[in-house]
Amino acid sequence: MLLDVLQGTEAGGFILIQDTVSCSGRGILKCFINAALKRGEDVHVLGFESPETQVCAGLDSSCVQKLHFHEGFPDPLGWKCTSSFTVDQFTSQHITQLIKDTQYAKASVLVVDSLSLVLRHHDPVVICQRLQELRKGGVIKTVIGLLHSDLHQQGVVGIVGHLASTVISVAPANNERHGVAKTTRRTKSGKVMQEEEYFSVSEDATLSVQAKLRQPGHVQKEQDVSEADPTSNLTFNLRLSEEERKAKEKVALPFVFSQEKKSALLRPTPGTGRIMYEPDANDDFDEEDPDDDLDV
């Protein structure tokens, strides 16, 4: 699944690469940059954490002229006035104009290296709104962001991840030459697919992927909210066998009358409907007709 995401970024998509101090996602980020350049796409990199030379190292030299690096390193806050792009300029209006000013500008790929630095100095809700505006603005085809998930609260990581169409979480593997990438992809129809794979990145920014061996009975996760089975992961059985179903149907419930009992209760008996009244000695009974004055 990781190679499918790499080879065909969809228009309006937002790909989020989550890493930690134990496993860097910068190698995968460079692979996405290299793949976009080879497809002939213009790539704009907002570089807050790495210099241009480090980002360009290993990229295809025949396509590197389509890479536009907007330097925010090593002065991302603009305190020394040495950066061409600062954290405060991370607005949809400024970034859109920045891309439009590029010669022969067309729908481009925007790479943010990294979102963590931006989120540390801005309200996460505001940044999510700006990312959404960039996705729908028409100038940017795809947004790819690197997020150091161990630097933020889980709530912040969650809202940024919810905005993304694809989330790639990297973690170390037992083999030091490889890492584990957990890719969660949400299609436009609402279906969510998830898969874990081993990966490695070569010096020329080429991504190699190997399927992770699954445990017996384990399949690639593919779920649709409307078709999810809530009983699939229970530790007890809610379904009945054929014998259990027949036995259940034979049980007489106390609050349900059988046909025989209904007939017995509704069958008329002698004296039904008669009212018997025996006057008491203390009853105040007047033998005269109380309504005799109504006779005409």
SSE diagram, text form:
Elements lengths: L1 H6 L5 E7 L6 H13 L4 E5 L4 H5 L10 E5 L20 H9 L7 E6 L1 H5 L4 H13 L3 E9 L5 H10 L2 E7 L6 E8 L5 E10 L5 E5 L9 E3 L18 H9 L8 H8 L30
Parallel strand pairs: 1-5, 1-6, 2-3, 2-4, 4-5
Antiparallel strand pairs: 6-7, 7-8, 8-9, 8-10
Largest sheet: 10 strands, mixed
- Any idea what the shape is? elongated
Provide mean pLDDT, rounded. Answer: 84
What proportion of the residues form beta strands (DSSP E)? 15-25%
From the alpha-carbon coordinates, what is the Rg to the nearest angstrom?
A: 37 Å
The number of distinct β-strands equals 10
Helix content: 25-40%
Structural class: alpha/beta
Low-pLDDT windows of residues: 222-227
The first-to-last residue Cα distance is: 103 Å
H/E element sequence: HEHEHEHEHHEHEEEEEHH
Q: What is the helix tally?
A: 9
How would you explain this protein's 3D organization?
This protein is of the alpha/beta class and 296 residues long. The protein has helices spanning 2-7, 26-38, 52-56, 92-100, 115-119, 124-136, 154-163, 242-250, 259-266, and strands at residues 13-19, 43-47, 67-71, 108-113, 140-148, 166-172, 179-186, 192-201, 207-211, 221-223. The protein is built from nine helices and ten strands. The longest helix has 13 residues, at 26-38. It starts with a helix and ends in a 30-residue tail after the last helix.
